[in-house]
Amino acid sequence: MSETHVHPGKHILLIDKQASWRERSARALAREGFAVDSLASYVLPNEGAHGAFRPDLVVLGCASVGPEEQELIGQVLRRKLHLLVLSTSLPWHIMRALFRDGANDVTDKPYDPDLLVETVNQALESIVDR
Q1: For residue 61, is it within any domain?
Q2: Is the C-alpha dihedral spanning 21, 93, 76, 69 positive or negative?
Q3: Domain coverage including residue 45
Q4: 30 inside domain
Q5: How far apart are CA 102 and CA 117, in angstroms?
Q6: Residue pLDDT, tens place only, 88-105
Q7: Which pLDDT belongs to residue 97?
Q8: What's the total number of domains in the chain?
């Protein structure tokens, strides 16, 4: 396994309708030094007059990618934000389509906080490497 660097201070927007996972994940990321905002709904905050809402990474946790998730993913990508999709059940062709559409990473939704932090760090590394 490759060494991953921690990215303290990076702003993460964590979106998931599952409250327990969202709250536990936000705490784990904050403990590692990330600035974390979380949403229980699929409505992105307005960017404001000067585009002030610019998280370094949007993390979408979901069971699967249906129409509601597709709409949110489209909003995130239209704003040219970096996106990590964590899902409990995604067929390979959906994962491939998400990559093709511009998601930075698509992987299984981790329930271990340490694995989540590692996954977020890896996504941020891939953004830096581009």
Answers
A1: yes
A2: negative
A3: 11-90+97-129
A4: yes
A5: 22
A6: 888 888 888 888 888 888
A7: 85
A8: 1
**Are 40 and 52 in contact, with CB atoms under 8 Å apart?**
no
Tokens of 62: 């979901």
End-to-end CA distance of the chain: 20
Whether 54 contacts 36, CB under 8 Å: no
Q: Are 31 and 6 in contact (CB under 8 A)?
A: no
Instruction: State the amino acid at position 27 in one-letter form.
Output: R
Contact between 88 and 17 (Cβ < 8 Å): no
Least Cα distance to 37 among 21, 20, 14 occurs for: 14
Q: What are the DSSP calls for 74-111, one per residue? A: HHHHHTT--EEEEES---HHHHHHHHHHT-SEEEE---
Q: What is the pLDDT of residues 5-62, one digit of tens each?
A: 666 689 999 999 999 999 999 999 999 999 999 999 998 887 765 556 789 999 999 9
Q: Tokens for 67?
A: 């129409």
Distances (CA, A) of 97 to 17, 46, 51, 105: 23, 26, 28, 11
The residue whose two tokens read 């974390």 is 36
Please check whether residue 4 lies inside any domain of the structure.
Answer: no
5 occurs within a structural domain: no
